[in-house]
Specification:
499 residues; 6-stranded antiparallel β-sheet; 5-stranded mixed β-sheet; 17 helices; 20 strands; globular
């Protein structure tokens, strides 16, 4: 069986046409030392002989028999093109698998792809997935266990005055559930947990993570550790993005309050979400509004709460979907659901309202979003106009006059991350704590991924940047202490962010 590593999977790629897509696959095979430089010509020649499109959005460009001598070792490089690539004869490829094979080893991969080629729904899902682990599992016919938190992972009323004891309880419980290895235990025991605030602390490890898992322990009474309050400790094992919605909830004030005061059932409900997902509504008879979020820091807790409060003024059933991330459709009256959408500046949200006051609701939502949901509106204009429609008939396009330039007093700097394991939870938290010291607005961008600028004061958004060793981060600061913030950020990154 041909093995497929997550490092060989490239999601959300862009190519102008089939040739460029094949060139990208060939270049990745060269960089992985699978083939020599001339292998591209063989792949292009093979495509001239006959199309490598297999069906259901999958193409497998590979070399000719004449170029087999250029293969150093068998391997594959997988590219996902969400927008699709015209592959000839009206076929659209969303997944392109560049193959280098010294003999017929690649045939085992084709056998593994049988389930995808025979299931159109699976192929469509592959085109939209944003998590590498989930993409690989589906492509290879494997299954990913849904993220759950067993009740046994919640330990309450622990009679201790020791932070280490709470950490050890969590680590031991994760080990019992086969979620972590011994080196994870050693790492979290030997490294101090980080304070989230309100007496809650969090700890994780860059090694020994086996599967997504979380454990929480809470002391019977609050106590102090190095001058800071301790009431509960959250220990996280993370291997994929499936755990991200739960990590996002840890930053929610209501969830933190439940962790501090709730019973086991209430805590599990808060961490995993209490409301059932809302199925997509039929647009017929409904009012649909599509709006761009202009807030500089996206929908963090405060603007999300303002949005939910506006939605709750109306009796209509209202759902929302993050079109930019192609999220599930969820209730717009749930604060946790809104925050979990991971909305950043420039994201497009689609609201669907059904009921007597549906039109008024959507118009009101368009106005409060255009006004910034209680915050200053970004100067960056939306790439697409906001629209409101009734059964496909556009009735209104709100106009917002905006300036595309950065403030004149903005201070910028680019820093390279040197941490061996990039910005996982611990160094990300160190960075966020440094940024919060200053009276300045600070945004950060992953230049290597050409991401959007996001708030550098949001732990969730920092982690979501996907920063690895060597990544270049661009920081933009404005405010009274902008220069001090940039200097402090540079110093803490240079020092290793606590590692």
């Amino acid at each position: 069986m041909l093995e497929l590593s997550e490092s060989n999977i490239h999601l959300n790629a862009n190519a102008a046409d089939k040739q460029q897509a094949i060139e990208m696959a060939a270049s990745a095979l060269v960089q992985a030392d699978n083939v020599e430089n001339g292998y591209l010509q063989g792949m292009l020649a093979r495509e001239q002989q006959t199309s490598t499109f297999l069906g259901n959005g999958i193409a497998i460009p590979h070399g000719t028999l004449d170029t087999r001598s250029m293969v150093k070792k068998t391997g594959v490089q997988v590219f996902q093109f969400p927008q699709g690539i015209e592959w000839g004869e009206g076929n659209i490829a969303y997944v392109v698998i560049g193959i280098a094979a010294r003999s017929d080893e690649h045939l085992s991969l084709l056998r593994q792809l049988t389930h995808v080629l025979s299931d159109e729904d699976t192929a469509v899902k592959l085109a939209k997935i944003t998590d590498v682990a989930e993409f690989r599992a589906i492509l290879m016919g494997e299954t990913i266990e849904p993220f759950e938190i067993p009740a046994a992972n919640i330990s309450l009323d622990v009679d201790t005055q020791s932070l280490l004891t709470l950490v050890a309880i969590n680590a031991g419980q994760l080990q019992v559930k086969s979620a972590v290895e011994n080196r994870f235990i050693s790492e979290v025991i030997n490294n101090t947990a980080l304070p989230l605030g309100k007496g809650l602390w969090v700890t994780d490890s860059v090694v020994g993570n086996v599967k997504n898992a979380l454990a929480f322990s809470r002391a019977k009474t609050i106590f102090s550790h190095n001058g800071k309050a301790v009431k509960g400790v959250i220990t996280v094992s993370a291997v994929s993005d499936q755990i991200n919605p739960t990590l996002a909830r840890l930053l929610d004030d209501d969830v933190q309050t439940t962790l501090l005061n709730g019973n086991s059932t209430e805590i599990l409900t808060a961490l995993l979400g209490s409301e059932n997902e809302v199925e997509a509504q039929s647009v017929e008879g409904a009012v649909v509004g599509t709006f761009t979020i202009r807030n500089e820091h996206g929908l963090h807790a405060r603007p999300s709460a303002n949005l939910v409060n506006e939605v709750k003024k109306f009796t209509s059933k209202i759902t929302v979907q993050n079109l930019t991330r192609e999220s599930e459709v969820v209730s717009a009256k749930s604060l946790m659901k809104i925050v979990a959408l991971g909305v950043t500046q420039g994201h497009r949200l689609r609201f669907v309202a059904e009921g007597e006051d549906a039109k008024q609701a959507i118009e009101a939502l368009g106005k409060v979003i255009a006004d910034g949901l209680g915050e200053n509106v970004s100067a960056v204009p939306p790439s697409e106009p906001d629209t409101i429609e009734i059964m496909g008939e556009q009735i209104h396009v709100p106009a917002v006059s905006e300036d595309n330039s950065l403030p004149a007093n903005a201070i910028e700097a680019v820093f390279v991350i040197k941490n061996e394991h990039g910005l996982h939870a611990r160094p990300s938290a160190v960075l966020v704590n440094e940024v919060k010291k200053y009276n300045a607005s600070v945004a950060v961008q992953n230049l290597d991924r050409n991401s959007q600028l996001v708030s550098a004061k949001s732990l969730m958004k920092i982690v979501a940047l996907g920063v690895v060793k060597g990544t270049r981060l661009r920081f933009v600061a404005t405010g009274d202490e902008a220069q001090q913030a940039i200097d402090g950020i540079g110093a803490v990154i240079e020092s290793g962010l606590g590692e």
